[in-house]
Amino acid sequence: QVHLVESGGGLVQAGGSLRLSCAASGSTFRVNAMGWYRQAPGKQRELVAAISSGSSTNYADSVKGRFTISRDNAKNAVYLQMNSLKPEDTAVYYCHAQCRPTPWSRNDIDYWGQGTQVTVSS
């Protein structure tokens, strides 16, 4: 079982910055891809950014050039630096990790954090 604990959300004015952190703890053979998703009220959860174990990154078009995802493999942690925040970035942000349970497992298991609220005021 793997637990993801997020931190760093809050209230910020438009144009401001926030940094989200997520640390994975528990028993797993390897943490593969990690990422951040968000869900605004009345909307579906969407991918914000993802990063592979080799640090290849993928971003939603709406955040390219403003957000940066990074990870620390030694700590099984992932970070999201959010700059030039806009009111439309307001949402609950969820950390996600794909974990390989054992060396002989065929599939990864998806884990989710509890979510952290990001509110951007205009």
Note the beta-strand portion.
Answer: over 45%
Could you name the ranges where pLDDT drops below 50 across 5 or more consecutive residues? Answer: none
Helix/strand structural class: mainly beta
Instruction: Provide the gyration radius in Å.
Output: 14 Å
Quaternary arrangement of the chains shown? single chain
Shape, please? elongated
Tell me the number of helical segments per DSSP (H or I, 4 or more residues long).
0
Order of helices and strands: EEEEEEEEEEE
Number of E-type strands: 11
Please bin the fraction of helical residues. Answer: under 10%
Largest sheet: 7 strands, mixed
How would you state the average pLDDT, rounded?
A: 96
Distance between the termini: 40 Å
From the structure above, extract its key features.
7-stranded mixed beta sheet, 4-stranded antiparallel beta sheet, 122 residues, 11 strands, mainly beta
Describe the structure.
The protein is mostly beta strands and 122 residues long. Helices cover 0% and strands 57% of the residues. Strands 2, 4, 5, 6, 9, 10 and 11 form a 7-stranded mixed β-sheet that branches. A 4-stranded antiparallel β-sheet has the order 1-3-8-7, with no helix packed on it. Strand 9 and strand 10 form a beta hairpin. The protein is elongated, with a radius of gyration of 14 Å. The model has no long low-confidence stretch (mean pLDDT 96).
State the gist of this model.
The protein has no helices and 11 strands.
SSE layout and pairings?
Layout: E1 2-7, E2 10-13, E3 18-26, E4 30-39, E5 46-51, E6 57-59, E7 67-72, E8 77-82, E9 91-100, E10 109-112, E11 116-121
Parallel strand pairs: 2-11
Antiparallel strand pairs: 1-3, 3-8, 4-5, 4-9, 5-6, 7-8, 9-10, 9-11
